[in-house]
Amino acid sequence: MGNKIMVVDDDLPTLEVMELLLKKINREPLLVHNGWDALRAIKKEKPALIILDVMMSPIDGWQFLEELKRNDEFKDIPVLLFTAKHVWPEEYSKYADDIVGVLEKPISLAELKTALERALPRDASSRADDDVHRTPQIRSG
User: Fold this and answer.
1) I need a labelling partner for 126 at 20 to 30 A (CA). Which of 1, 12, 23, 116 fits?
2) Closest C-alpha among 60, 105, 61 to residue 83
3) Contact in structure between 80 and 101 (CB atoms under 8 Å)
4) Using only C-alpha atoms, what is the Rg of the chain?
């Protein structure tokens, strides 16, 4: 899968900032403005990880996750939730096995880099050492 990180967010300024941050840490950003377009884009170019806004339209992040996880080819793509609103564990408990973490906006370059390092092991052997069911980490604002 490599270095490609898909960012799904309906806020254009957020996408622009994420593009700059990802490029600064030598990642290739794939920017998508809504969930439906992201589901189509994944079929053309499978990312290493998805950074997913929770509150967007026409489908929200939860609906996107459900659609993504229905597809065997894409259900193993790690997903980081990305939200301006604090997300309580009770809110995402249904998806705990499907997400690798939660990032709260705004995010710093250091926070993004740390989250990606946790979510994307450097090689396949390090992935085998990780717990299969990691508890998502929430950054407090």
Assistant:
1) 23
2) 105
3) yes
4) 14
- Answer for the pair 27, 119: CB distance below 8 angstroms, yes or no: no
Local structure of 117: helix, strand or coil = helix
In this structure, what token pair is assigned to residue 95? 């998806």
* pTM flag (> 0.85): no
Q: What is the spatial distance between Cα 132 and Cα 141, in angstroms, rounded to a whole number?
A: 27
- Say yes or no to pLDDT of 87 above 50: yes
pLDDT band at 121 (very low <50, low <70, confident <90, very high): confident
- Reading the block at residue 55, the tokens are 């509150």
Strands of the sheet containing 4-8, edge to edge, are 28-32, 4-8, 49-53, 79-83, 101-104
Q: Three-class SS of residue 133?
A: coil
Separate counts of helices (H) and strands (E) for the chain: 6, 5
What span, in angstroms and rounded, lies between the C-alpha atoms of 42 and 103? 21
Token pair of 8, please?
Answer: 């799904």
The predicted pLDDT at position 122 comes to 67
